[in-house]
């Protein structure tokens, strides 16, 4: 286990966002920039050029305009270090129909271009970390804009402002900012070389992972770890240590990874959320990580934070400074 940890997905975004410095002209200036780059989403997937294993989801101005037609991009993600704008847009159903969707499932194409879902792109090692992180930001914000079209105070229609940095109610002027839902994800250890993992019904066959759950209103990260572990597994948790975090745009979460100390070991798992839950020793976890478990049990892929929490358990690290 001395090899460097594989890359955590969606954390490589290096754009300068400058959200609070944007003005009424920021979007127009970005759209007019000769080096502007666009990410284009259609039917929940991302358009991209594909040449063998190489995937290029970033489009120049001319390419993007051909895809958009009369539709306008309203979301500025930020600028690269040398000042190039990066924008994102979701194609309308009418525009998708005009371009013509071909194929089915993973073989779908639009306008002669390949389509990829974000999880697939996160698993694709040929995609650089910066682009991967920008796509995650784009997905998160596009999802939020789609769900915030009406004001939660008065029900009035909202409009995008500051190049997509916020929305404003056209009826009561209420300002709305992008929502992020914090989630605690934890690897609980018992002090005797074992860690606690569970299986949810929707997991792929044989895959086990860390316990996780949303942080509730008025709750600390530490208490969320303790509450979720007790609710899901019946285990009482003491000390909690932060490890790392990960944007998780499915649709708009921030995964806050922790390790935790178990004060009890008898499992009484919640059958409503988990189909199974048990302790694993290091040798069994090592076999799972290396794909050599005798029963074919597996772990989450390296792009998921759960993989890195489990790997840290094997390497005896409570946190990973590479992600801080």
Number of strands: 18
Q: Report how far apart the termini are.
A: 21 Å
Reading the helices and strands in chain order gives: HEEEEHEEHEEEHHEEEEEEHEEEHH
Proportion of residues in helical segments: 10-25%
Q: Roughly what fraction of the amino acids lie in strands? A: 25-35%
Output the radius of gyration: 22 Å
Contiguous uncertain segments of 5+ residues: 320-324
Q: Tell me, what's the shape?
A: globular
Give an overview in words.
There is one protein chain. With 324 residues, this protein is of the alpha+beta class. 24% of the residues lie in helices and 29% in strands. Strand 5 (75-79) and strand 6 (85-90) form a beta hairpin. Helix 7 (282-289) packs across helix 8 (305-315). The longest helix is centred in the middle third of the chain and has 19 residues, at 129-147. Residues 320-324 have low confidence and may be disordered.
